[in-house]
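User: structure tokens for this one?
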Amino acid sequence: MVLYVIGTHIISRWRVYYNRSMNSLENEKRQLAVDALLNSDTVKEYVNEEYERQRYTDKMRSFQKEEIKFTISSGLIDVTQTLIPTLAFYVPVARILH
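Assistant:
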């Protein structure tokens, strides 16, 4: 039971960290998009389209990396919360049978 609580707590903190990071990157990505749209004339005038595209692409990649980490942590918590109780049940039963 203690292992279940500790594992869940550690992985949940990990998930919260990645969720916050993901939300922050999502906000930055949206701000870049809005800024580029509102200032599209200026961007075109100074021939900065490629620069703006690269900035947005970099933010998108960072966001996707954090999203993958968050998804992995979600799967890990599911596996942990399933595996620990299962082992807690089957290990004593296996001992009794042998």
